[in-house]
UniProtKB/TrEMBL annotation:
CC per GO annotation: 90S preribosome; small-subunit processome; t-UTP complex
Gene Ontology MF, one: snoRNA binding
Native species: Micromonas pusilla (Picoplanktonic green alga)
Family annotation (InterPro entries): UTP10
GO biological process: maturation of SSU-rRNA from tricistronic rRNA transcript (SSU-rRNA, 5.8S rRNA, LSU-rRNA); positive regulation of transcription by RNA polymerase I
Record-given protein name: HEAT repeat-containing protein 1
Highest rank taxon of the organism: Eukaryota
Amino acid sequence: MTSLAAQLQAVASAVPREEKLKGKASLLYELREAADIDLATIYAVGVQGFTELCRLDGRFEAYQKPLFSRGASETNRELQDKAFNDKLNGVLEGFLRLVSGHFATAAAAKCLEYLIRRFKIHVYNVEAAVTCALPYHATAEFVKLVQLANLEGTSFYWLEGVKEKGAAPPR
């Protein structure tokens, strides 16, 4: 095996596999419909939701530059190094903790839609994303988030039944 092939194999094994979807992962849209929506449109939707959240709670403003700026919208985390991704994960976890109290709002759904598409939180930040939504476990939005999430190897593996059946977990 050549050096390049070995490096590519190492990178591929380090990256969690996104489940095979027939379309793009989305909290707001159907998978096939989401595939037709470009990232610039998703970014605009996310910024709109973020602006609404900032009006509700000023603490969200701290996340404008690292997550909702034009520069952040052009960041591909899969092309970044470990240090960058560790820092990004910390920022995302803080944002998801804060947005948890607003999960049921349309503004939060818009922000999460952008974070799913741009930063793949349903693949790389499953623990934080599901924890954010857990208080709303009886909602359709929670079920959809769980269905998108890569639960394998997380503490939420027990939600596989929700993922397969598409129904909220029993109380």
